[in-house]
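Postdoc handover notes: sequence design on the structure in folder B. Input tokens:
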């Protein structure tokens, strides 16, 4: 790497900072051996990369996330039913309530730990970066209904399609119990259907509205309230079976008795009454719509380039999105090789979210076996608990949301604590390691650090602008 010019080092640092959660010595060696372009292409093909055995060992130890979510939910339901026994003493009730809380908390904690472990240790870094992007795009909230028991499986569905087909990703989230519960489509029933009449149920527009406003067309996508209602009718019956006795293995089930059996007109397309196929057709219409191409392209450009991305880049990506029928890998390839992405004007212009910042410190410092409970606590302290965003639009990646005096004080304090070994007292961050992994820093940062006592330099480097931006 010593023979590489400064401009090339800057370019490599830029690419690695966007395609990963923080450069490590292993990645630097890999780029030195195969070149930055080969690294990019391998990251675009995550299945071609052997996953870290260390990561797989850590994940294997998380027992709850490896169980069927239906079984976990049934276990929680059984505990709740026990409480209905009027013969229980107050001590017995407290014990059951405690067991119920323990199960719920442990499930969320393990899902969060798996999320953090993948971001820190995965060799498929771009895939994990895309999981961060897509999870916020298709956000669900852990504390809604029984979402917590499906969190890990839901995220894995996103991971599977993160660099694949947008339609496949859209369909996977639409049918997933976590989304069905979070946006209430599990209750969506045609009023005139047999189930609607029997149980006095009606339409629920929540999922249909967010599907168009957030997941596909965008708020200015040219749809009306009538379109929302029609789409809600199309998705009547898309629900879940918590017993696991019917439907798909993880819980999705189409209840024909709840479905609106009339023909529909959606966004100018005739959709004949055909049960579950109506929803699949509607998703294809939305996935291949020009407004969706623009909306997704804008969000990708915003995430990877600038809070206000250049229109030229958005239009370029939108064309590729449409031409490829939503091939995310091709769109990302075009983004990474675009003039705008590689323009030094946009290097280091994205202020990191708390999640991106903390993970990058762990990776830069190559902290071994970080205390995940403390890392979770730090994210909570910085107002970004994993799976904790209640709103359907997920956590923002814009600087205006995260950059303020209080947040900077908190980050500085946490950087100091991490530098002093709070995440692992036996794996302290070495300044030399940090400098190597962080790459080129400004002369101003160098000057400030050189004027600082040696014992404070690591913390100062971890709180520098170069560490805060990507």
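Designed sequence:
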């Amino acid at each position: 790497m010593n023979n590489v010019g400064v401009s090339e080092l800057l370019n490599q640092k830029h690419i690695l900072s966007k395609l990963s959660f923080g450069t490590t010595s292993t990645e630097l060696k890999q780029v030195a051996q195969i070149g930055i372009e080969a690294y990019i292409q391998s990251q675009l093909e995550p299945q071609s990369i052997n996953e870290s055995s260390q990561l797989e060992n850590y994940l294997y130890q998380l027992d709850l996330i490896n169980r069927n979510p239906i079984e976990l939910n049934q276990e929680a339901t059984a505990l709740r039913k026990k409480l209905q026994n009027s013969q229980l003493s107050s001590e017995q009730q407290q014990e059951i309530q405690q067991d119920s809380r323990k199960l719920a908390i442990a499930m969320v904690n393990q899902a969060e730990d798996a999320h953090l472990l993948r971001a820190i240790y995965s060799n498929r870094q771009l895939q994990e970066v895309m999981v961060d992007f897509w999870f916020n795009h298709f956000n669900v909230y852990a504390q809604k209904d029984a979402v917590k028991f499906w969190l890990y499986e839901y995220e894995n569905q996103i991971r599977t399609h993160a660099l694949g087909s947008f339609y496949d990703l859209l369909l996977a989230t639409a049918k997933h119990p976590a989304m069905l519960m979070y946006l209430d489509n599990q209750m969506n029933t045609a009023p005139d259907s047999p189930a609607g009449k029997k149980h006095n149920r009606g339409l629920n527009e929540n999922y249909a509205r967010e599907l168009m406003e957030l997941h596909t067309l965008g708020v200015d996508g040219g749809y009306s309230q009538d379109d929302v209602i029609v789409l809600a009718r199309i998705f009547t019956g898309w629900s879940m079976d918590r017993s696991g006795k019917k439907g798909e293995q993880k819980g999705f089930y189409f209840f024909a008795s709840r479905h609106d059996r009339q023909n529909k007109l959606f966004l100018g397309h005739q959709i004949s009454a055909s049960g579950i196929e109506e929803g699949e057709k509607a998703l294809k219409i939305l996935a291949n719509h020009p407004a969706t191409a623009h909306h997704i392209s804008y969000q990708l450009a915003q995430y990877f380039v600038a809070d206000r991305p250049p229109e030229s880049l958005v239009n370029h990506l939108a064309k590729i999105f449409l031409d490829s029928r939503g091939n995310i890998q091709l769109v990302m390839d075009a983004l990474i090789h675009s003039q705008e992405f590689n323009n030094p004007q946009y290097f280091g212009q994205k202020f990191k979210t708390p999640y991106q910042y903390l993970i990058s410190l762990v990776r830069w410092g190559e902290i071994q076996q970080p205390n995940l409970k403390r890392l979770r606590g730090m994210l909570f302290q910085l107002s970004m608990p994993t799976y904790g965003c209640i709103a359907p639009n997920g956590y923002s990646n814009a600087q205006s949301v995260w950059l303020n005096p209080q947040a900077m004080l908190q980050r500085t304090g946490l950087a100091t604590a991490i530098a002093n070994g709070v995440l692992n007292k036996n794996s302290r961050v070495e300044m030399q390691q940090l400098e190597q992994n962080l790459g080129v820093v400004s002369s101003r940062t160098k000057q400030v650090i050189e004027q600082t006592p040696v014992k404070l330099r690591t913390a100062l480097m971890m709180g520098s602008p170069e560490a805060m931006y990507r």
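Context for whoever picks this up: Residues 53-163 form one domain. Don't rerun without checking with the PI first.
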